[in-house]
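Human: Note token order:
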Amino acid sequence: MTTLVKELLSTFDILPESERLEIAVEILKRVTNLDFPPLSDDDLVWNAEELFL
């Protein structure tokens, strides 16, 4: 993760909940148009482990 991304996430974390929700909605709107490659089985397992650990 780049320094810029870390700074952005740190700033996001200190915002009030209403502003975090507003930003999240805008980001989700923008990423729905991106062409993501399909996830491999390993990617899916890794993500599941991260969520449940």
About this structure: The chain is about 75% helix and 0% strand. The radius of gyration is 14 Å. The chain has a mean pLDDT of 92. The CA atoms of residues 3 and 9 lie 10 Å apart.
